[in-house]
Each structure stands twice: as C-alpha cells, then as structure tokens.
Amino acid sequence: MTDGNCSQVNIDKEFVVLSCPTSSSSLSSDEADDLPEGSAAKKARREEETEQDEDREWGNVAAGIKEQVGKLLEFKRKDYENLLVEERKLEKMISDKKNLFLANELQIDQGVKEKDARVAQFKEEEITIKELLSSLEKRMETLQEEKERYVQEYQLEYCDAKDNQDELDKEWTSLYLKKNNIELKLNRFKEVSLAKDETRRILLRFIKEKEEDVECPVCLEEAAPPIYSCKEMHIICCSCREQVVTMGNRCPVCRVKYDKNKVRHRFAEKICEELRRMRKELADLE
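Now predict its structure.
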C-alpha cells in the first residue's frame, strides 16, 4: 500500500470518529429525565445547555471534517498535479518515441529505395559486362583465326624468302668472283702502264656498261642504294618501287608480282659502289 492510500485510510477513520455523537449528551438527557417536575426551569436550562453543547460539538465536528476535507483536497490536488506532470512526461516520451519511430521508418524507406536503386544499377552493369565479355570473346575468336592465317602466310613467305636468299647468295658469290677477276684485270692494265687515254677509254666503257646494269626500267635513271628486285632479279629503284606498289605491285619487266617483304638487290648495289670508285679513278686521271 502506498503513502497516498495510507493517508486516505487515516483521513476516512478520523472522519468517521468525528461524525459519531458523543456519549456525554446522552447521559445529560437521561439525567434531565430523572429530575423532579419542580425543577422545570432548571430542566429547560439544562436542555438549552445540552443543545448548545451539541451545537458546539457538531460545529467542532463540522470544522474538523472541513479541515480534513481541505487536507484531503490539498492532497488530491497535489496528486492531480503530479499526475499531470507524469502525463506531460509520458506525452513527451510518446511524442519523442513517435518522432524517433517516424525518423527510423523514413530512414528505412530511404535505405530500401537506395538498395533497390543500387540493385537495379548492378543489374544494368551486369548486363553491360556480359555483353562486353561476349563481344570480347567474339573478337578473340576473330583474332585467333587471323593469327592462324597470318602464321600460315608468314611460313609460306618465309620459305619463299629463304629460297630466294639462297639463290641470291649463290649469285652474289658468282658476281663477287667476277668482280675480283675484273679488279685483277684492271690491276694488270695498271701494271702494263697503259696510256691515260686508253685507261680512260676502258674506264668509260666499264662505267657505261655498269650504268646500263643499274638503270631503273621505270624512270630510266641510274638506281642508287637501296635497290630492290623481283624474284627474277630485275632491279628497280627505291622511289619507283613505292610507286609500283600503288599501281598493281608488279615488276615492270616480267610482270611478276612483288612479295610483301622487299628484296634488296645486293649485286646491283655493289655495282653502284664500283661505279663510284671508277668515276673517282676517272676523275683522278684527269
């Protein structure tokens, strides 16, 4: 039982006690009945006193009850005020909880929306990545096929180039021997002390022959290194070789198609070197 309930019980008990009539007034009435009739005035006075005592007693009871009721009302007012304070606290707590709940609910809704948006974005990225992977796989297959084709073509071209290189090496060796023979002959001409005119004539003849050997069939000019050739060893100068590529890529002499890899005519380049040397000797004779 709380303190408020205990106070309420005590006040109710006091209210009951004060409400009961006292025993003194009853005794006075009995004594007044026992008095002789000769004392009527005294009896009336006693009755009047008794009434006055009762009035005072009931006045005191009423005052006590009023005081107790005032205390009870004050107690109830304080309890009511405390209850109002508690009610306001509870209302504030309920409002705070409600606001917190709404904020959490809003945050949860926003988080759900963000999650849905991220999931949709991930799905789009997944689709894009799958399409990209599919495209890359197709590209890889195409590149693999091109690689195999290029390897086969390269092997064929390498075999052809190897055969051409062997033939060129043999031809170069033969031409180199001829060159040495020519040099020996020239040295012999010098040893027998030919006249300058005879030497000049011989040099001019050799120069003319070699100029014809290195004449480009396209521009009809003397080719200068680098000098290229077809499979049949027909020479062509560098600038004309580039022009022929855009005009059918065929040799202007035998009409054989040029290889993708440019083949150098080393012997013709050696002839150019000999021409330079013979022209220098011719200049020295003058």
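The longest strand covers residues 228-229.
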